[in-house]
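PROTEIN DATA CARD
Card holder: Cobalamin biosynthesis protein CbiM
Chain length: 206
Origin: Sutterella wadsworthensis HGA0223
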Amino acid sequence: MHIAEGVLSAPVLIAGAAAAAAGIAVGLKRLDESRLMTAGLVGAAFFIASLIHVPIGVSSAHLLLCGLVGVMLGVSAYPVIFTALLLQGVLFEFGGLTVLGVNTTTMGTGALAAGMLFHALVHPGVSRRRLMIAGALAGAAGVLIAALMTACALAFSSEGFVASAAALLAAHVPIMAAEAVITALVVDMIARTYPELLHLGEERPL
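Structure generated from the sequence above:
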């Protein structure tokens, strides 16, 4: 899902940077000190998962965990994802610095949408089955929204990237399925061990 340097047009880069800055500012304001450790752990999981690329046809894809990040952190996913992407760009040259804003916006928005969906579907005392379904939907939604926004960024930059945008969406269909399963299982485990981390019935992402 990382967009490389030299691909996007200047207007798209500027718009992405502005949106990322706004998301980071709001996310930091909403990030309570009691959730810093959670933010660090979730950010580390995102960092590691998105480093592992799997070949799919003529393209490749990797886990994002946007849905899980959004479920756990809501709008605070933006600064966490920004930090992870910055480290990946500096340490491993994944993505790049000029596209950091766009990549943060696409994945951060996917995370936020997933978190909002999850918390709209669950409530205190929710059944285990419903909780896992909500987690699965959030996991899939996080990838879908991020992939759609990435495809739009490519398409708006050049007509020549429309085919690439379509290929990117197709490559992430199996990732959506995988993340649906992963997020459902992780949410179920957290609900049975540390349910307070899910903030059910308390704070909504926005």
